[in-house]
Each structure stands twice: as structure tokens, then as C-alpha cells.
């Protein structure tokens, strides 16, 4: 006799259930077993089962466990965690930099040097893929050893390029079997960077380069920086030196400088303004940088003038000419002749000349601007827009006052204290042990804390530059590229005035740098901010993966909805990811990610 339950089932399904229905039941049961059996290995594993540092214990509470369980069930029900992982790009993209495609630029009609400039609008979005490191890529050495020795397999430079390089900084390189070593100043007695820096200081009337800070020189823009040796020396004497150079497919100055752990980014003196506000730097330096300063009716020098603060210095070192009758000597004289006349038209004065080095100083006296002659460069009128705008034929005078956002000392102090605490918590989480499925580095064991070299840091939404200030307070051996999104409140003048490197950037576009150049990416509130823009969040994450080194870290702080979506994208690009409930009663969450060392 059948049970009442079976009788009811027969009424619903008939005397014999369809085979297809039975098959569906079996499949559904297996799926449930698989889902709940694998949930323990999800990226939302309970953090109580993982070792955590003591200084982060306040974040580990029962409430977090409940929140994580909720996130996991919600994510599983939506299927977000089962999205397909992205594939890898081909070998030809190992050193790919978007927006710098000369062939496409020429086909689009750009010419007269503009084809070498940045044009993100030319190349459309292709298929998403992840850029693999070169076959011989190795984890960079810890700072400061990594400043003087880098792995040759990490950068794209040929032996012929190395042997043919002839600038002052390039001559300081030694090529070994699988390393590139940069000579220190200690063994140099002639034409060394330290001697060169001291010469500049003496030409400025200083006793030595240790007096740069006393003379008001704290921030330096180094154009065409070779491979960063001058910048490395300036960093050693507590100056902020930012290297810029044009895009180079091989032998890149910017790529080698970043590999050494020095501030650098791609930037061209061709047809557009650089993405910095007016009055940003105390010194602009060019040593054999290859810029034709005598061309474009002086507009390249006008751009230098825009970037210089009143009283700032322009240092130009031209190539030496062994023969005054040579073609090189004639070319140099042709370039320097207008430089002897044009600076007076923009209120500069030549304060010193020694050998091939010239130093001009921009006046801080408004009298020069008010008593202009007819042939002098006119003063600009209107707003100073400096995000890749066309070069300007006018100069910024005293009437065009630089806008500085007002922040009270109390806000500064509160901001710094908050970031010091946040940094302490971030730093305690930068360990592979936070991920239960962290892949080991190929051929090596995980090193001791801090577990990998964290030297190059990018704050993608820098606000006041508080994270940078906290790193300095805690004496961490890092530098921070402070990025101010163009659609947010422009705090970049404030950041630069604090002596920190920074830049304006539109995060709907790729960042002007080479692959694998940053150890840590941080963003506070950026994802929510971009949700109202035209940007694709997946485009952003693929770009972050491009510029992040293998085993590099990502720290995102944002609203719950944005963090949930970010975690799903992190899974697609093969990052380890962990959501942290910070227990402050808000809907804000912390997402910690690490990019694995994957070669195939």
C-alpha cells in the first residue's frame, strides 16, 4: 500500500513521473552538493579560520562572519562568482601601453610629431585579456637594493640599445648576465651625478646640493631622465623628482626608472600640455633630453614656464660638441641662439652658464609682467585647464592666480591620523595568508614580511594625499603616485605643494605607464565615483591588472554594492580577493586583492 505522500505525488505527476523530471532532480541535487561543498574554499571564507596580525584583531568579530555568510549566499545565488576567468594576451603584448599606437595615429591623420603623442580615442576597446609577464621575469629586489640592480628580463631593452646609449645617466649602467647594475656615486670622480648636482647648486649660488631645500627647491620635473640616476640622487637628498619621457617601444627610460623604484610616467613635450596644474614645480631639468626647445615658436618653453612656480629654475644641459665646426655643434648653436633671446620675453633671466649647462630663473616680480613690450609673449586670459590641452601661446601672469583648495589645519591633522590608522591596518593584511588558495611564487618560498617588495604605490583617488603622508610618518620605504581624477574636486595643487608626486587622470582611459610598474594600488571611493561616469568597471580592472606587478596588492575601500561588484571582477581577472567588514556601522567595506604570479 502506497503512502499518502506518494499518492499526492501521483496526483501531481501522474502514475509515472517523466524521465526528464527525474533527470532534472538528480542534476539539481548534484549541483547543490557541489555548491555547498565548495563554498568553504570561496574567496569569502571565514576570516576566523585564517591567521591575522594582532593589530587587525578589532576587525575580526562575529558580526563580520554573519556579513560574510550573507555576501556569499547572495553572490552564489546571483551566479557572479561563476563568471568565466579572462584569458591571457599574446606574447606581443608583454610590454603593451594603450593610447600610443603610431601606425593608428598616422592613419587617423595625426602628423608633425603628433603621431607620437597620446591618443586614447584612436584605438577602440578590443577583447579583454590579461598581460603575462615575460618568461624571464623575476620579482624585483627589495629597496634600496632594487634601486641599483634590476633584472634585465623585467624590462625591454636590447643589448645593441644598451651599447649605443650615450647620455650621462645611461653611461652609468653595467650590463651583466641577467642583471642591469647602476653605478653608485661613491666610485665616480668625474662626470658623476653627485658632481653634476653639486655643480648645479653652485651655479645657483649655493654651497652644495644639500641646500636645495633651503633655496626653495623641493619638487623637480626631470624631462627625458635617462634611466633615473639624477632622480635617484635627488631622492637621496629628500627632494621629490618626477621623471617624464615619451613612449618608447624598447629601451624605455620610464620603464627602467620605475623598475628601479623611482617616480616616473610617460609624458610628451610635443603638442599638448602635461597633466599638471600651473605653478607645480620648483625646478624643471633637461639633460640631453632631446626636446627641440627652439621649435614651435617657443611654446615648449612656455609650457615649462606654466609648470614652474614663480622663482623656479629651468636647468638645461646640452650635448657637448668636441668640434665647433661639426654638424652637431652647428645644430646646438642654432638651438641655443633663440634660447638666449626668448626667455626675456617670458620674464626669465639667465643666472648662470658653465660648460654646457644653462640655468634660467623665472621671475617672482610682477613688475616684469606689467611692463611688457609689444613683441613679448602675451598673458593668458581665462581658466587654466591642464589635462592634455593644446600647447598655449601665452604665459600665466600674476593676475591668473593659482587655485589652491582651502583645507583647515584641523582637517589636515584629522585626515593624517585617520590615514595612519588605516595604513597600519592595510599593512597588516598584506600577506598571502589572508587567502586560503594563494599560489606560491614559482621556484621559491614566500619570504618574510612584508612578503614582497612594496615600493611603487599608486593612490588612484588621492584626495589630500593623506595616504602618502601616512607612509612618510610611518617611515615606509615607498613613494606614492597621487592620482586626482579629472571629474573630482581638483586637489592636485595641494598635493604638489606638500612635496608629493601627483597627476591628473581620467580613469575612463588607461594610465600612461608600462605594464608591471606598481606594487600596490589603492582607491578610496573611486568605484562609486566612477559609477556615474561613462567608464566600464571591467575596463578599469583590466587596466589595474596591466600596471600591477605579479604578487602586487590592491586595496579598495568603498560602498557595499561597489565592493561586491569589484570582488566579482577580481575573480574574473584571477586575483585573490577578500572582503572585510570594517565594523564602523556604515555600508563601507574593504576589499583586499593580490595578483598571482602566473606565467601561463
From TrEMBL:
Top-level taxon of the source organism: Eukaryota
The UniProt record lists the keyword Glycoprotein: yes
Q: How does it sit in the membrane?
A: Single-pass membrane protein; Single-pass type II membrane protein
Q: InterPro entries from the xrefs?
A: Put_SAM_MeTrfase, SAM-dependent_MTases_sf
The broad enzyme category this protein falls into is: transferase
What is one Pfam family matched by this protein?
Methyltransf_29
Q: What is its EC number?
A: 2.1.1.-
Q: What protein does this entry describe?
A: Methyltransferase
Gene Ontology cellular-component annotations: cytoplasm; endomembrane system; membrane
Q: Which family does it belong to?
A: Belongs to the methyltransferase superfamily.
The Gene Ontology terms for molecular function here are: methyltransferase activity
**Which UniProt keywords are given for this protein, alphabetically ordered?**
Glycoprotein, Membrane, Methyltransferase, Signal-anchor, Transferase, Transmembrane, Transmembrane helix
Supply one GO BP term.
methylation
Where is the protein situated, by its record's location annotation?
Endomembrane system; Membrane
